[in-house]
Amino acid sequence: MEIMRASIRDLGPLGRLERACFDQDAWSFLDLVAVLTVPTVVRLKAMDGNEMIGFVAGDPRSSLGWAWIATVGVHPRFRRKGTGRALLRACEARLSLPLIKLTVRPSNTTAVAMYESEGYETIDVWERYYRDGEDGAVMQKEMPAAGAPATHSDPAGTQAT
Q1: Contacting residues for 80 by C-beta, under 8 A, at least 6 apart
Q2: CA 70 to chain centre
Q3: Residue 28 DSSP label
Q4: Average pLDDT for runs of 10 along the chain of length 161
Q5: CATH class of domain segment(s) 2-103
Q6: Angle between the 11-22 and 29-37 helix axes, to the nearest 10 degrees?
Q7: How far is it, in rounded angstroms, from Cα 15 to Cα 141?
């Protein structure tokens, strides 16, 4: 697996990955174009050979002092191999802000556990956030100050999607 920057050339593969990962919550065509073209967005893909197996996007909101992880998705065939964790860490490193936030389905216990092991804590719940009415758990992580060592637990077998 290799992690690299994603671009508009990845529109087709990202659309297929979104549908495989998120089904009814997959982003629309316009959302995909936006995430692949907005200059400030950090967008990374995980590749296995010529196949996109994962994607992460982070939106730095420097004026607010925090960033938003908009999505972390790993193709179901490649889950539980550390791809989501690797994408998350790579995105965090490029965001360079003291606080990072994201939203996750509480029913996605594997993702919630991975985020918690990476230092994220639930700070809020947005009611009926997802299309099917499930709430969204808002999680955040305080990033270590520049030069401070990061600490991560890495339980085997966890993977975010």
Answers
A1: 110, 157, 158, 159
A2: 6
A3: P
A4: 96 96 91 95 96 96 93 94 95 93 94 95 95 94 69 42 39
A5: alpha beta
A6: 120
A7: 28
